[in-house]
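Page 37, continued from 36.
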């Protein structure tokens, strides 16, 4: 199976409740921190487009980029008639847009799918090319606490109508990488079909991210522990970065 085929099928069931607070957080960032008026927005790693659609419905012009055709297909199918979102199937490491935007965001740990500091540096450099001066880059990444204490080597089981998902994790503290093993059992006429997929994420320390942002001419507005702008704590699972393109 492709790396995000199972994920595409079940993603909204697992994460759907978090889309609305995240979209409100982004809208507040655009209003409060951008030095230019935000109209065109890039969603980098847009996935099934839950947040993309909410912002598009608020009259922003959205471009959704994602490497997974399965995730984009869900996104496209769920977009209401009359809402115009440009979806592009593209690897963020080779980001290539038609023009510039006033803001870009990357939600739900997309950047943790990059394999190295070099790749993160490249993605920030590409983003800087496409975000207009004074515009915003907002993103979240997983904290070390989340990898070490929550994902760790733990397993999670989700049960839906006809589906059961088993999600097993393996974290390597030396490599700072976390492998996710997803196994889906889907029932059809009394028979259960099994499918598997594997993904890998990397932890990026706050210091590394800040130095790569500075190198690529993004200045830091703040780092938050959640979408309600609470400060980072030792038990925060995400670091939300708000930055301005200089
Ligand atoms: C955890 S999902 C987040 C989806 C979406 N941002 C959201 O908030 O619901 C991670 C997404 O990152 C995408 N992704 C991973 N590596 C990528 C890459 N190199 N280029 C573009 N998208 C990538 C995956 O296909 C997946 O849709």
């Amino acid at each position: 199976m492709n790396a995000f085929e199972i994920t595409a099928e079940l993603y909204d069931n697992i994460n759907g409740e978090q889309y609305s607070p995240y979209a409100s957080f982004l809208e507040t960032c655009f209003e409060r921190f951008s030095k230019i008026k935000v109209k065109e927005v890039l969603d980098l790693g847009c996935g099934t487009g839950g947040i993309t659609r909410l912002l598009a419905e608020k009259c922003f012009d959205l471009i959704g980029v994602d490497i997974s055709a399965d995730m984009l297909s869900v996104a496209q199918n769920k977009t209401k008639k009359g809402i115009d979102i440009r979806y592009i199937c593209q690897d963020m490491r080779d980001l290539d847009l038609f023009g510039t935007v006033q803001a870009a965001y990357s939600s739900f740990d997309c950047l943790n799918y990059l394999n190295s500091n070099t790749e993160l540096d490249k993605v920030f450099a590409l983003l800087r090319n496409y975000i207009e001066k004074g515009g915003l880059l907002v993103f979240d990444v997983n904290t070390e606490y989340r990898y070490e204490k929550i994902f760790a080597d733990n397993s999670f089981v989700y049960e839906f109508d006809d589906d059961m998902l088993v999600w097993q994790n393996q974290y390597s503290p030396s490599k700072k990488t976390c492998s996710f093993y997803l196994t889906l059992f889907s029932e059809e006429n009394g028979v259960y079909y099994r499918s598997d997929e594997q993904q890998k994420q990397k932890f990026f320390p706050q210091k590394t991210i800040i130095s790569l942002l500075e190198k690529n001419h993004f200045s830091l507005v703040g780092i938050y522990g959640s979408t309600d702008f609470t400060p980072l704590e030792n038990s925060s699972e995400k670091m939300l970065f708000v930055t301005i393109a200089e």
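The helical segments are 5-15, 19-33, 50-57, 69-78, 117-130, 144-151, 206-215. Flag for discussion at group meeting. Residues 19-33 form the longest helix (15 residues).
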